[in-house]
Amino acid sequence: MYGSTAFLRTFRLAFLTCGLASGAASGAWAQTLDQALASAYDANPSLNSQRAATRAVDEYVPIALSGYRPQIFGSASIGSQWVEGRYDAGIGSVTSHYKTDPSSFGITISQTIYDGLKTANSVRGAEAQVKGQRELLRNTEQTVLLDAATAYMNVLEDGALLELRRQNLTAFEEELKSARQRFAVGEITRTDVAQAEASVADAKSTLAEATANLKTADAVFVRVTQLQPQQLSPARPVDGLLPASLDAALASGLTRHPAIRAAQYAMDQSATEVKVAEAALSPTLSLNGSATNQYNYYSDGDRIERGTDVAATLNLSVPIYQGGAEYSSIRQSKEKLTQARIDIDTERDQVRASVQQYWSGLQAAKAAIESAQASVAANEIALKGVREEWRVGQRTTLDVLNAQTSLFEARASLVTAQRDRVVASFSLLSSVGELSAGRLKLKVRAYNPKVHYDQVRDAWIGVRTPGGQ
């Protein structure tokens, strides 16, 4: 296995050249991968948005719990009343007119006693939804941290490739200068000079492309981490956090990956939704109470200055037929439960494929590093020999240019392989469900979704969030 010490030593070119290519500030201070990951954990908009979504989902539990609590309503009224009455007084019909200003106020209380276990199942479903949302948050954290690590390594890679292209252009310009001098004294032909000129022109074009690639990588880095790339330090792969074997990686991914766990909680929620829908066919029993005070009103022709009504009733409602919508809802919820079960298998298949993909990618990256190292060493020797032979007329200018190009490609392959190894290690850690700020031991204040949940779960009143909004 390619050790981390050797890894950092061979990747030092990327570290040094990236600082030059990305316009780093002067000084010994440099950004590290851990700092970039910590900034992404704290400031990434997508992750903070998912945290807000998790807090919003927490409120489904107190909403469901409200079914256990009484409902209290107050009422009040005021107005004018005109009463006209006709009656037989023995001497003929007599008409009387009355005018008063009635008013009233009262209170009504309703407490559900039995609702077919609708409330109990709604609470269980809401709690499953909260747990599933926490897993989605953990999955988003994994995605953001992986994006941050990838963006960091892309800046390192593109910075190193830019510097290599600059070095390559300088080498070609030196070859062009030497070719023109030798052409001036008749040692080579005009064709040799033209070949060197073509190589310089091509190197300038690829240098401009590399500059654009680095700017793009910088922009992605800023978007993901909310940091400006400064002088980036070399980064180690996270091999020490990875499972020892492919079987262990698969076992961890299939049991720990947040996407699978979120799908399992979604199935639990769907199961409770079936029971909630079936509750529409159940009788409901409620206890209702009311108290009302009335002033200045007429009853049976008599004016009453003040009256009080108090009532308590036990109400039983038995559904017989409600139009059929309740049966459709039950069938629909059962189909959603079937879908949720299938979704678990889908997530498992995706995780299994991802683990195998990134495990193979990590092994391939390690092999590519060893191959690229050998290629760089061999091409350096070859270029040195070709140049010596060119000076004595045994090689053409094209041979030198080709050897220089081969050395550049070998060095570029080494830089890319180093980048791929780091990214593959983070990708594998993510695919087994273990990529988190805690696992990486980042110096951040860990976000605990349970804190907000505990603050709002049993809240009976209040419109301000625990955050003060």
UniProtKB/TrEMBL annotation:
- Keyword Transmembrane helix on this protein? no
- Please state the protein's primary subcellular location: membrane
Entry keyword set: Cell outer membrane, Coiled coil, Membrane, Signal, Transmembrane, Transmembrane beta strand, Transport
Matching entries from SUPFAM superfamilies are given as: Outer membrane efflux proteins (OEP) (SSF56954)
User: Is the keyword Chaperone in the record?
Assistant: no
One Gene Ontology cellular component? cell outer membrane
Q: Which portions of this protein are annotated as coiled-coil regions?
A: 123-213
Gene3D superfamilies noted in UniProt: Outer membrane efflux proteins (OEP) (1.20.1600.10)
Write down the superkingdom of origin: Bacteria
Which Pfam families does its entry note? OEP
Where does the signal peptide begin and end?
1-30
Q: Where in the cell is it found?
A: Cell outer membrane
Molecular functions per Gene Ontology: efflux transmembrane transporter activity; porin activity
NCBIfam families linked to this entry: type_I_sec_TolC
Q: Which family does it belong to?
A: Belongs to the outer membrane factor (OMF) (TC 1.B.17) family.
Q: PANTHER family given for it?
A: OUTER MEMBRANE EFFLUX PROTEIN (PTHR30026:SF22), OUTER MEMBRANE PROTEIN TOLC (PTHR30026)
**Official protein name in the record:** TolC family outer membrane protein
